[in-house]
């Protein structure tokens, strides 16, 4: 669409949000973007649509202490010709800074949905539970009690997510999560995070049902591991946001929609097949360092 000889790009109306993405050291950003676009396209086609106009893929990054690939990409950007916005080229992808109140990187390639990368941090509590601070670049210390991590005052635009992990919500740690849910049901501001790496044989954790009954949302995310082929899962598991998303402020609009208590999250994607889950768990165990024998 053009006005007065100037191209005016329409807002997006659907955003497929992957709520838990790691840009692992072994991941090539071009392959990650290709995969995310392909997975979003599959969701569009599964809904019976023939094209991707008005569709946006969103990757909510969750980067651990000492890692900031979002900032690495942004610092590599350079001004374009004739005063064009700063950008960087990665293969067939052009990445530029998203407009609006909050930082984001918008990746574009001919013929596929655009992909929006939103910065975020991951913190491991003293109990070895994972907390995500999405739409945030503020660093947080690891190894603090979960109560202190969750209790850190955050701006309203930051989504705080207590993320499920294999075996981490059982027993004593499961009871800790239960207490957090009861507390947050009255305080608000917390979401729980489901994980696309959860196998189909693993029934939904009881904490998710309790959280929904208490008015807390459960945000899905792929949570790819640092293993071969895991980047293929990026963008395959998440929540669909249907709203008018202006190009002038996409990150804020999407975060507000995810937070809005009056808008239930629309889940998309499938849990992991049991065989792949077992293969990944074996792969993780092989990669763990073997402790040296004591003298």
Based on CA inertia axes, which overall geometry fits?
globular
For CATH, the homologous superfamily is named as Metal-dependent hydrolases
CA(first)-CA(last) distance: 73 Å
For the record, what CATH class applies? Alpha Beta
Order of strands across the main sheet: 5-6-7-8-4-3-14-15
- Judged by helices, strands and strand pairing, the structural class is alpha/beta
Helix residue percentage? 25-40%
**CATH fold node name:** TIM Barrel
Spans with pLDDT under 50 lasting ≥5 residues? 1-7, 290-295
How do the helices and strands follow one another from N- to C-terminus?
Answer: EEEHEHEEEEEEHEHEHEEHEH
General description of the model:
With 295 residues, the chain is α/β, with parallel strands linked by helices. It has a single domain, classed as Alpha-Beta Barrel (TIM Barrel), CATH 3.20.20.140. The chain is built from seven helices and 15 strands. It has an eight-stranded mixed β-sheet, with helices on both faces. A five-stranded mixed β-sheet has the order 9-10-11-12-13. Strands 1-2 form a two-stranded antiparallel sheet. The termini are far apart.
